[in-house]
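User: Can you predict the 3D structure for this chain?
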Amino acid sequence: MALRAVFVPCHWRKKRRLRLIPTLSRKLLLPRSTAYIQTTRRSDFRWVRLRLLWECPTHSLERLLVEKKLLSRADVIQLLDQDAFSETFVPRSKILSYLERAAAKFLVSRSDVCVPLKSSQYQLCAGNALDLLNTVASESIRCVVTSTPYWAMRLYEDMQRVQWADGEFCAYGMEQTPEGFARHSAEMIFALSRVVTTDGSIWWNVMDTFNTRTQVRENAAEALRAMQGKETRGWKDYECRRYSAGHSFLKDGEQCMIPFSIAQRVSRMGLYVKSVISWAKTSSLPEPQESRVSRNVEYVLHITRQRTPFFVKEAFRKMPPKLGGRNATLESNKLSDSWVLPTSAGRDGHGAQFPLSLPGRCIGISTEAGDCVLDPFCGAGTAGVAAIGLGRKFLGFDISDTYLAVARQRLQAATTGLLIEDESLEPPAQDFVEPPSRFQAAQAVA
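Assistant: Here is the predicted structure, written as structure tokens:
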């Protein structure tokens, strides 16, 4: 099967001619000149957008794509042999098969089938985030804030296997390697970028880990018992175990550097990594190790579609600390890339909640009153509580009906003026809840 390369003329050029622009070397999907592939498998040709898969030199693309009308399998392989190749969410060896699957999968164009959030302040949907994102209208979300599953560290309720673009079939967070987790994270961020407004933000909270032999436990309390020597189960008693041997380059005990791998892949796809923020926790679990420092930091990637997203630094100084305002004891008046915030007790049956102040800060500095906030892994709904507490609307996805039931209870309480955090009821700080303003209803899942 041959793949036909067609280039749409740049809308800002008066002359109606087909040409490539220099930035094509960084990605094959451009805001001004978009590359497509067309399969010749059927007589009624359908168009499929060529995904952001790799980097390669401009002159190589021009020589191959301009001089030829059809791209054969050999042509694609020739592109992959370029030294500048760097993967995003599909490995080099899987790109050709991915293109063929994409051509078959996207023969029928996607349409937005969701309805707007009208009078409701929140919407919760059960299911896989990648599937649910296909039902959300483009550019309908001002802010995405989420805490992703940790890689090979936790077993979550109702985990579902997903077919990823790199060919792996697994639940998110249960990949065979840290590179697989980074690829799947990049694929998820790419899907989210479609539904985010051009001036919107994606806040991606992710934790790093070490390449060590360990059991995969169900929650932080179980891990704490093991570190205190109170765990009675042995290595073989755990259903899921992680091994450190056999990795292509990571040695036993070495840090995996997952957040930075995700950030690099996102940048290659053409999105902006505005900041890699360090979340310095006020408390953390003890670690039984003597050869390195203990971890006390998680990371928040601030990702945008353009260089100058909507951003209000002043909100950091005006918001109450509970909703992400300045920690007067440990933070200066300057909003930096080091955030000192408390950890969550992880009650409500969810062992990996982030504190209310973390999503609150992200939402407060990157949205306005009435904007729609999305958390694709909403869990017990902490991001939603923060969104409603700040006068925003919220859309949340999760695969667990149990967590969604807890989230629904917390969000309903938030609409009445009560914020539930760690099973305590506290009134929101009213001095920063902005009054309703003009709001173009964001699209959400019915």
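Residues 3-105 form one domain. The chain has eleven helices and 20 strands.
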